[in-house]
Design a protein that fits this description.
With about 375 residues, the protein is α/β, with parallel strands linked by helices. The protein has helices at about 15-25, 40-45, 90-95, 110-115, 140-145, 185-205, 215-235, 240-245, 250-265, 275-285, 295-300, 305-320, 325-340, 345-355, and strands spanning about 5-10, 30-35, 45-50, 65-70, 70-75, 80, 85-90, 100-105, 125-130, 150-155, 160-165, 165-170, 175-180, 210. The chain binds NADP nicotinamide-adenine-dinucleotide phosphate.
Amino acid sequence: MSDEQIDVLLFGLGAIGSFYSFILSRSNRVRLSVVARSNYDAVKSRVCLLPRCIVPGYTELADDEYVQGFIIDSQNHGRHTVTPFKVVRTPAEANQTYDYVVCAHKAIDQEAAVAQLAPVIDQDRTTIVLIQNGVGNEEPFRKAYPRSTIITCVTWTGATQVEPGLVQHTKSENMQIGLFPNDSADQSVEHSRLDTFASLLTAGGTVFQAIDDIQRQRWEKVVWNAAWNSLTTLTLLDTRSWLDSSPEAMPITRRLMHEVIAVGRACGVSTLDDDIVDKLINRILGMPGIGSSMQTDYKEGRPLEVDAILGYPFRKSKELGLSTPTLDTIYAIVMGVDRRWVCPLNLVIIEWIEKCTISDTRPSW
Ligand SMILES: NC(=O)c1ccc[n+]([C@@H]2O[C@H](COP(=O)([O-])OP(=O)(O)OC[C@H]3O[C@@H](n4cnc5c(N)ncnc54)[C@H](OP(=O)(O)O)[C@@H]3O)[C@@H](O)[C@H]2O)c1
């Protein structure tokens, strides 16, 4: 496949989807299509090639100053406009199958996403790539497309879509990739598809590692997310302020992390050890206080990635007869919080909280 054109579909063109679309588009072998949802009009109609298009008040542009696509503004890679081959609202609209379908949507209602992707997947050709937080994300894909190769990725890249079609990327950039095992598949095909995807990331100039023990990485990231996403969302504090809020905060955080690690180990990830807790605590203490994507989703009234981050570990804990009281409690409360949108009054309260907040991560009270 080395010189052949590779058809890639990016599903979930938000912050991470746009960043990795940009990376993949840098290989001249890739023909990139994207499924855009709320940002469809911005990406499909035309955005400006020139930086001045985002200067407030600027309205008039000459025709040759526009191009279809989206903008990546990266502290590592500079500012680029990406012009996909196809921009579609739904996978069905693409009207073709793909070599790689890269999923970077929020891990919310994974079953619905799996069903939507049916028209673009040819199980004997298509490799599914998942770039999402959470654990258990691969299972609905394996169930629906048992012959497809699945590459599962853990990203530590930091990006935000600041307006439709404009994504800012910080200096954080790293990803681990690996195969989700399929014992009934031809292993040489599985590995060559992984190698091809790795070669595209290399051509795109991003930082990543291909590793065998990818589930260990997924669980390590979920230990991080289970703690910081949940606790910053429930308290509306940044990580520092939470840890400083009472003498109980640190032990509760550590207990939650240890319980998620115990579930991961019981699920067969034997390399997941308790030292991760110290490592992750030291990492957060070395950073300024941060919020989390779940906290941002909460404030913006969007559904939370509660199932992939807490729900799967919780269910596995029950199935395996483990005792995880902190995880159980936090999961139940975050589930309740996730249902806030059923009561419109809650959204009014959230809006009011937003108005009283100095920044995303540092509430004024
Ligand atoms: N951003 C980061 O710095 C970061 C870092 C590490 C990991 N992650 C993980 O990366 C994944 C993507 O996050 P993100 O920050 O890129 O999110 P995002 O900016 O909110 O983008 C998500 C994109 O997927 C679409 N989408 C959301 N839910 C969907 C669904 N159920 N089905 C189909 N499309 C859906 C959204 O469309 P709409 O705009 O229409 O909602 C949006 O285009 C998440 O699992 C996140 O936890 C993010």
